[in-house]
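Hi support team,

I submitted a single chain yesterday and got back a structure, but I'm not sure I'm reading the token output correctly. Could someone confirm the output below corresponds to the sequence I sent? I've pasted both exactly as they appear in my results page.

Thanks,
R.
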Amino acid sequence: MSKMKFAVCALALGVSAAANAAVDGTVTFNGKLVAETCTVANDSKAITVQLPTVAVQTLTGPGEEVGSTRFEINVTDCPAGVTHVAAHFEAINSSGADPVTGNLVNSSTEATPAEQVQVRLYNITDNTQIKVGETGEKFEVNNQAATLSYAGGYYATGQTTAGPVTAKVQYVLAYP
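Hi R., thanks for writing in. Yes, this is the structure output for that exact sequence:
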């Protein structure tokens, strides 16, 4: 009987070792939630950015960018301990973003929407891309308020075609 127990234990250890051998690594998530936050001003809760009308000849190949247009998110009533605030941009209902480029896809529902075009988000100070799922640059809080300035513009994934462009993204305030 002791040989049987030994065999069962050895088998269990072998299965456990095999399961552990199949693991290549781990992921640890760390974060922090804060109780007191800034308030998004009413004029910043539903922002519409009107991109310029441009010719398809300005977006003839992958990676071409044009029409960068600035928008602002105003926050107020920041608690004394909050010194910086930023916007973290997220896809709405986990859709509307291209995981390869990090841009917003054209979600126009009109009959013939523009093709091969996306909308890219940018930090204003250095014109770097903000991928959907990332936090934009932080801004200093003064007198319990801040204005967060970012931009959006057209980005070609190929030879664009004429038509309307619509893209949406949601944001939450982040406190870097």
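A quick pointer for reading it: The longest helix spans residues 2-21. Let us know if anything else looks off.

Best,
Support desk
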